[in-house]
Amino acid sequence: MTGFSSMLSHQQISFIRKLKEKSFRYQEGIFLAEGEKLVDDLLRSGCKAIEIYFEESYSGQLTTHPQAKAISIREMERISQLKTVSPVCALFPISSPPKLNVEVFEDEWGIVLDDINNPGNLGTLLRTADWFGMHYFICSSNTVDVYNSKCVQASMGSIARTHIYYLPLDEFFASLPKNIKIFGAQMNGQSIYTTDFPKGGLLLLGSEASGIHPEYGPFIHKNVGVPIAKHNLRHGPESLNVAIAGSIIISEIYRQHFST
Known about the structure:
Blueprint (H helix, E strand, L loop, with lengths): L9 H9 L3 H7 L1 E5 L1 H9 L6 E5 L12 E4 L1 H7 L8 E6 L15 E5 L5 H13 L4 E4 L9 H7 L7 E4 L2 H6 L7 E10 L9 E5 L16 E4 L16 H16 L3
Parallel strand pairs: 2-3, 5-6, 5-9, 6-7, 8-9, 8-10
Antiparallel strand pairs: 1-4, 2-4
Helix pairs in contact: 5-6, 5-8
């Protein structure tokens, strides 16, 4: 993919378009990021761009990057995976996370995702956890791919600052030392505001449709939840979006241990 001319060939366009497919992304080890802010954030986070493309009318700072090339609006529309096409996109290599040492969760928090299907939810959780300094994600094999274009967009560069592992959760849970506690996010769980979270541990979030799978119940130390306001019990929503609920819980964990 190196040595592109300023105009894309049909073969190059076809290659970039196929990055929409998970299997092809991992076969080639490349993902597409779209948007000036996102591309700039990834670059500032240490990602090395393979190629950067910008529309001919774009005059921002990324035009001076050594890997930047001008293409036509029509070409940008053909390679874009978004409904609203950005004037900038880039190809980046898919990186592998460092080897996971589970003992890290004695002093740090990790987020465990049980079959999260919505890429926007995963991206939002990555961005929120990154904001609060939590950089470990353990994902079930059926959780949506982190390099899905919608997830990349929602994460706004946090994929470059978080370590994301796809593992069989039962094997992962079984490998944990007994002193590392797992907190399951459940609607009927103990209020997070009356829960004493340890300095390190794991927050388990279930799928949007069915929540946490029952087989993981024996591994959970305590179920916790975000309480609805008492005056809103009758007329409030039935539940919270998993990304919102997870973000609120992450914020409370941070408040208890790291806010001062």
